[in-house]
Amino acid sequence: MITVIKPEYFSLEDFMTNPHDKTEWVDGQLIEKEGMTLRHGKIQLRLGSCWQDYKESSGQGGEVYTDVPCRTKKQGRSPDVAYLTPDLVAKYGNVPTLPQSFPLCAEIVSPTDIAEEVLLKAQEYLESGGEEVWLVYPESKWVMIITENQGLMFTYGQTACTQKVLIGFNIAVDQLLA
């Protein structure tokens, strides 16, 4: 389910300088992100915490965020979990909205999300500076990892691992979705 927020006028530039919490700027409209459940929030926190712990223990640095705005070529998006490399933190660490996609981001797919739209969003991230997108499907127990050149799927009993960013990170799907 999508709720359109109807301010008088809110441009993409407005979103870039003053993003609203839990919203995305899509096709000229400010859209409220909906469908977040307790399970969604738990998985989001778990993945973000695991990325945070790994970037520190591996010495790779950077920053991990949740529900933080970025600009793609067409839209203003807010991935559920995002990782920014140290060089991009140095360059953009204090802007209200990242002017490109995060190198690594994740979307926790809600039961109300439309599969094709989620895949198009992942493609949008990749076309706008993103290198790797994780799509987490809690209900079907799948983790899909998409890069420019490949798409991988992992399920219970398997271990999902980063492909291009935050190299070496891995997590058992069972642990992530527990």
From TrEMBL:
One Pfam family, short name: Uma2
Residue span(s) of domain Putative restriction endonuclease: 8-156
Origin superkingdom: Bacteria
Protein's name according to its UniProt entry: Putative restriction endonuclease domain-containing protein
Organism listed in the record: Dulcicalothrix desertica PCC 7102
Lineage, highest ranks first: Bacteria, Bacillati, Cyanobacteriota, Cyanophyceae, Nostocales
